[in-house]
């Protein structure tokens, strides 16, 4: 059963359209991550689901009930804010109990719900403290606890880890993953600009850009089979390399020729009409390996070496008509700046994009 | 070497403090102490120097019916101005903090009384209160058919008329503090409460109002001080009359000191005013302490 359903949803402020034609079905128990660059509309979309922003086009339903004009409190949602949004003058206990108190629930019921949430999040020792006496990670746990107490159908997370330092971010991310496991029937929608959070937490990722959905899919599906150049470059770090090329032979396999390198046979089907079409050949930095072969995919001078121990990142000069190409090699490589290297890649891991940026695999 | 440097730091420190200290001592501390000393002396007249008379001035004060009258007036004045001006300020701030067409104009209009000199606006209000053809008589006469009222000339209405002018003057000033506090309040708090099902009324009483407590404390201490300090308009509107009906403590002190030239007794009354203000300010801190949440 679909838990949250968006049909042709759009948002405009006056004549400025920030989201258009959003169609998405979210299943019960799914953890969906909205990811995209700043200003892509991901937070706005989440706030529209929460009811904090009006929906100017299309329909939103939660559990098959149209929610466009239902106030936030009656949508069966709970929201965790980036800035925690804890009430600074209330103790942790009162913060978590606030919603139930104003709903005039019986005291025993409130107490039971608060202690259950506190137990799950290990907040029991802090129940009588004020938020200012807690660390950032603890405050975010209280905010999550406040959401749990509401026992919602859908949890909404708006960049919940962005205000935490790097170590806490990893720890809290793992906590959220455990939390999701312990509540298999809760649907969660999670907004982030951090692709590591997206990849590690999501059942499915929704990549947004400029008010549109670029692609929806499981994390590895997006990584291995991006629909277009934007998704290809947004998922994965460093971003996918794109090399200019022209189709020279079509069929079940496609051969492309390049001005500054040998022809490459890519095991992706193409049509006769693609002949002589300009395309972009995509290869992920981590799919490149060093080679001695004469007909290497890339031959270029090393501009910069970043030795990280677990990987060595090479920034190459000159390959692909000046635009920098990046190679990410596992382990430690004694490559010096200024040396010429040759790199190859498994043809099965190459991508082809047409002039419009659409992947040949998705046409 | 080290001692020299320490001494130099010490000198620099005092030099930096000096300008502020000179003014603070010249206009606050020395006059206060002098008043306290003078309150134990008789008023010097002609060739007769002031002489120490102990608590005689204080005895006179306790037996002075006008002192009790103006003190009572002052308490009524305080009770009339403080809650009304603070409450009005909060309502105006909430109003102009929301989305509202002509918001800038409304903010300016509310703040205007603060920038105008009290003496000048008192003259305008004098016209409003004029019996027969003043604004109020025209308004109430036209709406309810009331007969002409001498707002400033009748002992029953004089003080209340002065109170209205004071509220009008002060509310806009306090509004600015509330507005600043409201704008510093994170929007996400209100959004979180909305998601949890709180309506506007609940959000105000459970979230906004408690978080405004530091501002309320600050504003109300200022309002208390002002209720003893603002007398400019009384000179224009009623001159304390009729029969001291609109005289407050500071006005009475002015009359004793500079109309009757009884500086000794005026010093005694001043000490009484200072003690009263101190007690009120300390009391307010204790009263509010438990309820004020500083972030």
UniProtKB/TrEMBL annotation, chain A:
Keyword Transport carried by entry: yes
ABC transporter domain location: 4-235
Superkingdom of this protein's organism: Bacteria
Keywords: ATP-binding, Nucleotide-binding, Transport
GO MF term (any one): ATP binding
Coiled-coil blocks: none
Gene3D superfamilies registered for this protein in UniProt: 2.40.50.100, Nucleic acid-binding proteins (2.40.50.140), P-loop containing nucleotide triphosphate hydrolases (3.40.50.300)
Pfam families membership: ABC_tran, TOBE_2
Family membership: Belongs to the ABC transporter superfamily.
Protein name (database record): ABC transporter ATP-binding protein
Organism: Roseibium aestuarii
UniProtKB/TrEMBL annotation, chain B:
Species of the source: Roseibium aestuarii
Coiled-coil stretches: none
Protein name (Swiss-Prot/TrEMBL): Carbohydrate ABC transporter permease
Compartment(s) of residence: Cell membrane
Family: Belongs to the binding-protein-dependent transport system permease family.
Broad class of the protein's primary localization: membrane
Membrane-topology annotation of the record: Multi-pass membrane protein
Pfam families referenced in this protein's UniProt entry, alphabetically: BPD_transp_1
Domain (ABC transmembrane type-1): residue spans on this chain: 71-286
Record-annotated membrane-spanning stretches: 12-32, 75-96, 108-128, 158-182, 203-225, 265-288
């Amino acid at each position: 059963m679909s838990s949250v359903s968006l049909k042709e949803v759009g948002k405009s402020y006056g004549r400025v359209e920030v989201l258009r034609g959003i169609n998405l079905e979210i299943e019960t128990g799914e953890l969906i991550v909205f990811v995209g660059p700043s200003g892509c509309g991901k937070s706005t979309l989440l706030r529209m689901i929460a009811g904090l922003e009006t929906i100017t086009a299309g329909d939103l339903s939660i559990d098959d009930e149209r929610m466009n004009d239902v106030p936030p409190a009656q949508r069966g949602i709970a929201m965790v804010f980036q800035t925690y949004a804890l009430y600074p003058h209330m103790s942790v206990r009162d913060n978590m109990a606030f919603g139930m108190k104003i709903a005039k629930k019986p005291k025993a019921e409130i107490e039971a719900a608060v202690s259950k949430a506190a137990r799950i999040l290990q907040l029991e020792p802090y129940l009588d403290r004020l938020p200012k006496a807690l660390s950032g990670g603890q405050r975010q746990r209280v905010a999550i606890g406040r959401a749990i107490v509401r026992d919602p159908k859908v949890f909404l997370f708006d960049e919940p880890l962005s205000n935490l330092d790097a170590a806490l971010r990893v720890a809290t991310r793992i906590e959220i993953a455990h939390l999701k496991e312990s509540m298999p029937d809760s649907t969660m929608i999670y907004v982030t600009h951090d692709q590591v959070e997206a990849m590690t937490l999501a059942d499915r990722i929704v990549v947004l850009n400029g008010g549109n959905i670029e692609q929806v899919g499981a994390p590895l599906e997006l990584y291995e089979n991006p629909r277009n150049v934007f998704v290809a470059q947004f998922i994965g770090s460093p971003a996918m390399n794109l090399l200019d090329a022209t189709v020279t032979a079509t069929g079940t396999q496609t051969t492309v020729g390049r001005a500054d390198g040998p022809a490459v046979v890519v095991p992706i089907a193409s049509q006769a009409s693609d002949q002589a079409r300009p395309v972009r050949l995509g290869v992920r930095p981590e799919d490149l390996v060093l080679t001695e072969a004469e007909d290497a995919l890339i031959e270029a001078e090393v501009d910069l070496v970043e030795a990280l121990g677990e990987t060595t990142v090479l920034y190459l000069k000159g390959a692909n008509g000046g635009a920098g190409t990046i190679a990410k090699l596992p382990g430690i490589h004694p490559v010096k700046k200024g040396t010429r290297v040759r790199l190859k890649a498994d043809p099965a891991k190459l991508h082809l994009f047409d002039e419009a940026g659409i992947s040949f695999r998705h046409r | 070497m080290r001692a020299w440097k320490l001494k130099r730091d010490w000198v620099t420190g005092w030099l930096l403090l000096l300008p502020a200290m000179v003014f603070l001592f010249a206009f606050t501390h020395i006059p206060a102490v002098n008043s306290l000393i003078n309150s134990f002396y008789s008023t010097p007249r002609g060739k007769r120097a002031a002489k120490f008379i102990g608590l005689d001035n204080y005895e006179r004060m306790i037996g002075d019916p006008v002192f009790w009258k103006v003190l009572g007036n002052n308490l009524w004045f305080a009770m009339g101005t403080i809650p009304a001006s603070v409450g009005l300020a909060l309502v105006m701030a909430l109003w102009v903090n929301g989305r509202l067409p002509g918001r800038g104009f409304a903010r300016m209009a509310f703040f205007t009384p603060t920038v105008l000199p009290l003496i000048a606006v008192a003259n305008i209000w004098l016209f409003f209160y004029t019996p027969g053809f003043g604004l109020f008589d025209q308004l109430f006469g036209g709406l309810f058919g009331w007969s002409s009222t001498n707002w400033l000339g009748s002992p029953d209405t004089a003080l209340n008329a002065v109170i209205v002018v004071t509220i009008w003057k002060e509310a806009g000033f306090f509004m600015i503090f509330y507005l600043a506090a409201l704008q510093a309040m994170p929007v996400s708090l209100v959004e979180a409460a909305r998601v949890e099902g709180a309506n506007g009324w609940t959000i105000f009483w459970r979230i906004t109002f408690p978080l405004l407590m530091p501002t309320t404390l600050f504003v109300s201490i200022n309002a208390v001080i002002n209720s003893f300090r603002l007398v400019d308009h009384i000179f224009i509107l009623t001159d304390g009359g009729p029969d001291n009906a609109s005289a407050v403590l500071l006005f009475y002190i002015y009359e004793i000191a500079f109309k009757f030239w009884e500086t000794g007794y005026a010093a005694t009354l001043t000490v009484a005013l200072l003690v009263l203000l101190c007690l009120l300010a300390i009391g307010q801190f204790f009263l509010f302490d438990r309820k004020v949440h500083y972030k």
